[in-house]
Input
Amino acid sequence: MQCGCPREHLCARCNDDAFAQLRGVAACRGEVWAMDVARRMPIARPWPAYEGRAAALARGKVGDLTTDPALVDRLARELAHWAARWWRASSAAHGLDR
Ligand SMILES: [Zn+2]
Output
C-alpha cells in the first residue's frame, strides 16, 4: 500500500501506522527518562503533567523519530505516559502511596 502523503504531515492512516511502529521506542525512552530523573530528583514529587516544559522535553526525546509535528506530539504523550507509569510504580516500591 503506497500513500503519497507528505512525511511532515502524515494522513491519519499513516500516522496510525507510524505510531504503531514507534510507540515501543517512545515507551522505552519514557522509562529511561523517568529512571534518569529519579537519580537527580526526589521520587516523592509527582511526575509533571504533559504541559509546558515537561511537554517540550518529552517532544525533544522523540523529535528524531518523525518530522510530522502531530506524530511527535502523539509519541511524546506516549513517552510521558510511560515515564509517569514508571514513576508511580517506583514511588509505590518506595512506600510512597499516592
Ligand atoms: Zn498517508
The chain has one domain: 12-93. The pocket of zinc ion is lined by residues 3, 5, 10-11, 13-14 (CB under 6 Å).
